[in-house]
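Records of this kind hold a single protein each, on a pair of labelled lines. With that in mind, the following record should read easily:
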Amino acid sequence: MSVIHVFFADGFEEIEALTSVDVLRRADFEVIMTSVTGDKTVTGAHNVVVQCDELFESCDFSNAEQLILPGGMPGAETLSNHKGLQDLLLNFNAEKRPIAAICAAPMALGKLGILEGRKATCYPGFENHLKGADYTAKLVEQECHIITGKGPGASLPFALKIVETLAGKEKAQRIADEMCFKA
């Protein structure tokens, strides 16, 4: 079975990370909360402590269907600087496999040139990290196999866009309706 990895580092934005995990699990995806810190216990930007499912080093990404990078600082910066994650993102991009990043985390994609010539959005003030991207300032932006989100307020539309991309509009709409969210 294919899985979705959501990556965690200390200082992650809780609402972005946990909304993605929650919505994708509601949509019946296997979601693995993956720590890049060497410790399964990770503390968010607002001191919410979570227990991840796996450590990056112990994961087999061959069956990964989607990679998701939440924002928050310094979490997004830690993700951006993680060599193993950089290599994984470059491989996914080369194979045109789905990647999503929200808030400050699109800087990890920009740093690697993944956003070059693509529409993208991010948290205001991080635009200069989106090397070669066409910055749109939209709440959620999708181009090809890349989805980017603007910030915490975009968490639910961002997660629903991932569901739509992987499972179709009907499933995304069903999840939105069940959550009493008007898209």
